[in-house]
Amino acid sequence: MSAPDNIHEIMLTAPVIPVLVVDDPADARPMAEALVAGGLKVLEVTLRTDAAIEVIKRMNLVPGAIVGAGTVTNQKDLDAALSAGAEFIVSPGLTEPLGKAAIRSGVPFLPGIATAGELMAGLDMGLTHFKFFPAMANGGIPALKALAAPFAQCRFCPTGGITAETAPDWLALKEVLCVGGSWVAPKGASREEIEKLASEAAAMAR
What we know:
By secondary structure, the chain is α/β, with parallel strands linked by helices. It has nine helices and nine strands.
């Protein structure tokens, strides 16, 4: 399956984007198959482990999966992720070198922001879709509502500290297209458990 060619469509694919930290490449395909079977097709593989690039390659083999790279912080990370077949890029923050490199590459890009200044820097680059990160540590829903108010053209994917219990409250905000969360694929969970958690997350209303 070819991925949507813009970040807006990717964010609308499912209400929850799993944020995945995978240590063993052998876990990649079964995990992706379980998430996709549960209805979560957009998968963010964080570059926090030595296995991450191989994990992206293996998850890309799963029919229906739209596999991206998270925790991309510089051009080297970006190049490695794109070489592995990442179909979208997520960063924890936004720097001018990374932003310009991602835009040049044409890959759907979701940069992290926490302040109005960072958001305005993104707007100056032509970006309108952002990851609000870390969501809970930055003040939660009241903070995002206040931040988003002057920027009606912007849409968000809050990530960081969001749970199955709190996700619906975030998704109720008109500015929020989806949320990122690690709860759908907890460490040590079975394939059946992951598929069940994914199914519950996919059913969340926006």
